[in-house]
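To assess whether ligand presence alters the predicted conformation, the chain was also submitted together with coenzyme A. Input:
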Amino acid sequence: MAAVLTGLGGYLPPKVVSNEDLSATLDTSDEWITVRTGIRQRHMVADGMSTGDLAVAAGARALKSAGHPAVDTVVVATTSPDRLCPAVAPEVAARLDLGTVAAFDLTSACSGFVYGLATAAGLIASEAADTVLFIGAEAFTTLVNPADRTTAPIFGDGAGAVVLRRGEQGEPGALGPFDLGSDGARADLLAIPAGGSRQRSANGGPGHDAVPHEDWYLRMVGRPLYQHAVERMTQSANTALKKAGWAVTDVDWFVGHQANARIVHAVAEELAVPEERTAVNIDRVGNTLSASIPLLLNDLAAEGALMPGHRIVLSAFGAGLSWGSTVLTWPDLSVESVH
Ligand code: COA
């Protein structure tokens, strides 16, 4: 038994913010951002638009791509939920008219998509679910300080969704073995300190200091993260390939989380995947966390670069720290462009 990919869809909010636009208000430049990150523009939610809105739009497209099957479970991977409680997945399921299905959120930052695929595959393997709509959705720019030039250029908003059904190992679209890992000792490298149970009150209160304004926003220590990202994604992708019994030369596409084009190329080089088989779309969307890999798959498939029968290795790394990888052979899917 296996979880098999049977639908794919994505959504980007209409507002596009270029590097030049950012340079108008931040001490940065198109050249710095492009050279250091590969990012040229990102999409951002307009006021009033939330992660749930993005998830519904991407979910609807994935359901259409799958031919509107009966779904019994909805999982949303997000690190920028509409609110702390409740999870956004039940509301997304209701807005998609899926009825009283099982629905929950999963938080694993930039590795959320791979963790979510593994979770969905586990639900299907345990027979808790037959068909899962799994969505990676992020309005993460709402949690990034627009005045912080070290983070503001990097992130973008969007959502990507897949439909997974029960099937057989070896058929196109079957998710391969997974490698998952974490290192919580390095949690401080990428964190939003406030808003949870540790720093809980904006105004202080009995026994609590007021939370400084900056603590509501993302803090990132870029340099060491870069090194961890390259090391962990390489190691993890190699482990997934080994578990699957695939050689690197079997791989048609390396689909890595888009945190930085330099990171993606460095991992590909370590893996010995040639540049023409290394997928990159960060120039158009920035780092969209758990939406990054499905949006990249959507671009590749919609452009016809990713073809049925292609073998791909997916690998992600993010806050936690956390990472994960898996492999699959691309199935025959109808996919709409998000641009
Ligand atoms: N515009 C212009 N200059 C900037 C800048 C910006 N937006 N951001 C930082 N700088 C400056 C710094 O102040 C520093 O100046 P200095 O040399 O005078 O001190 C210089 O550029 C270099 O900064 P540094 O942070 O060392 O750059 P870098 O080459 O490491 O690139 C990142 C920064 C963030 C792009 C890179 O470290 C990275 O991608 N890290 C991983 C991030 C990541 O993966 N995050 C998500 C995990 S999924």
